[in-house]
Amino acid sequence: MISTRPNLAYLKAAWAAHASISAEHCRQSYDEAGISFERVNHSWIVRKDGTQVSTMPLRYTRQELRMGFLGRIEMEARKAAHEMETILLHELELPEDHSLVVEMEEAMRRLRRNGTRSMKIFVGPRVLSEFFPQLFAEIHVFLDAPRACLFLHQRDTKEGTAIDLLADAPKRKRHPRAESYAELAQRIAAAIHETLDESPSAMSA
To answer: What is the C-alpha separation between 125 and 135, in angstroms, rounded?
Structure first.
């Protein structure tokens, strides 16, 4: 059975493999990059420092190898995105007129195009209206390891400036890290709830 959870060891190795033959390392040899090949029938098993990161046909170009890394990374990144979305939808107690949006497809396009390592998740009112207060959250999730940047604002009136609810928050709350993407989503949900509970003008869910 194929696991629905992202393989973090693979993600780390695949990103390292991609970086080791890209940009300023584009002329580095495979040996120098720590990439090895093992022929199995009509394919090459590709490893980075001992961890399998791709399977390639016998004939391939360096660019095809890079794209192969990104293609396999995308598979794991989609698992991470789905895992986080499921937990956030369950854990976040949002007002009825608020919703959560995961910009997964845009993130996957950027990943395939130039190796971008982040994805954005937004929380906010479905339709900007006259009802206040309104909560706006933006979560930048990194796809190379379970870590994120959290931005949380609240607008109390139509004319008022949005209040940065994390302006005085410790770094661990603004830049959470975890051992898994499931744990990361739980920490983000807890941070949002804790911040709203502590805020004098916290909105009710």
So the answer is: 7
- The one-letter amino acid code at 79 reads K
User: Residues 71-120: pLDDT tens digits?
Assistant: 999 999 999 999 999 999 999 988 778 899 999 999 999 999 989 999 99
Assigned token pair, 119: 């994805």
Residue 6, both tokens: 């992202």
Task: Please report, to the nearest 10 degrees, the dihedral formed by the alpha carbons of residues 149, 24, 17, 83 taken in order.
Answer: 20
Q: What is the per-residue pLDDT for 204?
A: 47
- Angle at which helix 104-114 crosses helix 62-91, to 10 degrees, equals 160
**Total-model pTM:** 0.88
Give the residue among 4, 12, 47 at the shortest CA–CA distance from 179. Answer: 12
DSSP 180: S
